[in-house]
Amino acid sequence: MMPRLFSKFLFFFMFLAGMCTTTVAAHKYPKPPSLAFLYQVNITAGGFYNIGPGPKGRRAVIPIANGTFAGPQLKGTVLPVGGDWALADANYLVNGTLFPDVRQTFLTDDGEYIQVFETGASQSDGTVFVRLTYEASSLKYYWLNAVVAIGIIYQVPPNSITIDTWQMVPPSGPTK
Ligand SMILES: *[C@@H]1O[C@H](CO)[C@@H](O)[C@H](O)[C@H]1NC(C)=O
Ligand SMILES: *[C@@H]1O[C@H](CO)[C@@H](O)[C@H](O)[C@H]1NC(C)=O
Ligand SMILES: *[C@@H]1O[C@H](CO)[C@@H](O)[C@H](O)[C@H]1NC(C)=O
User: Fold this and answer.
1) What is the pLDDT of residues 68-108, one digit of tens each?
2) Which one, out of 4, 41, 92, 151, has a CA that is 20 to 30 A from the CA of 174?
3) Cα–Cα–Cα angle for 43, 49, 54, nearest 5°?
């Protein structure tokens, strides 16, 4: 038997979900989402602070000096705040995975702020895969709050990176 409180809660949740989403027909096979290009960002670091080993691994802090971003729907500069609070895993000597923890503040060319949050993991080819979320208050960029995005970080020696990002969009066409 479903406890009464839980069943009430479930009903409420389904009611909310019904209000917020469109009903989509069930299908037999999982359909992979498609990706739409969001933007490219180039960032130059303003230093490197090796915090060293701690309970979670080796921490380093890499502040952002400056940067530029450009994509089909947004472009502008990266403000000199934020950075990467990167963690090399506790087994760094036998397993070289690096986990970035990045915050960036974008200033669009039309004067709006966008806050970017980004975490991920390094890959064996030297790139870093990231997942990104956004906070925007401007109505023009408010859609970014609902974006589910992924990206790839490329190192550009000596002290820059390029991050290419894509947003998840609905599956295109049926999948067999
Ligand atoms: C970006 O920051 C780097 C490092 O501080 C500096 O050398 C460079 O001149 C800056 N570029 C711009 C466009 O401000
Ligand atoms: C990033 O840097 C590359 C290489 O210099 C350049 O081709 C590209 O236009 C830059 N992108 C942005 C958004 O600044
Ligand atoms: C790190 O360890 C994990 C878990 O054992 C493994 O899947 C991964 O391939 C390792 N990464 C590297 C770079 O060795």
Assistant:
1) 999 999 999 999 999 999 999 877 555 679 999 999 999 99
2) 151
3) 120
Ligand 3 centroid from CA 96, angstroms: 8
Pocket test for ligand 2, best of 37, 39, 40, 153 (most atoms within 8 A of CB): 40
**The pLDDT of residue 2:** 46
Asked whether the beta carbons of 160 and 154 are under 8 A apart, the reply is: no
Domains and CATH numbers, the chain: 44-167 (2.40.160.20)
The residue whose CB lies within 8 Å of the most ligand 1 atoms, and thus the one to mutate among 66, 68, 107, is 66
Radius of gyration of the chain (CA): 20
Q: What is the pLDDT of residues 58-74, one digit of tens each?
A: 999 999 999 999 999 99
Q: Do 50 and 62 touch, CB atoms closer than 8 A?
A: no
Q: Which residues line ligand 3 at a C-beta cut-off of 6 Å?
A: 95-97, 124
Reduced to 3 states (helix: H, G, I; strand: E, B; else coil), residue 5 is: helix
Q: What is the mean pLDDT of the chain?
A: 88
Global pTM value: 0.83
- Contact call for residues 169 and 34 (beta carbons, < 8 A): yes
The answer to whether the beta carbons of residues 163 and 130 sit under 8 Å apart is: yes
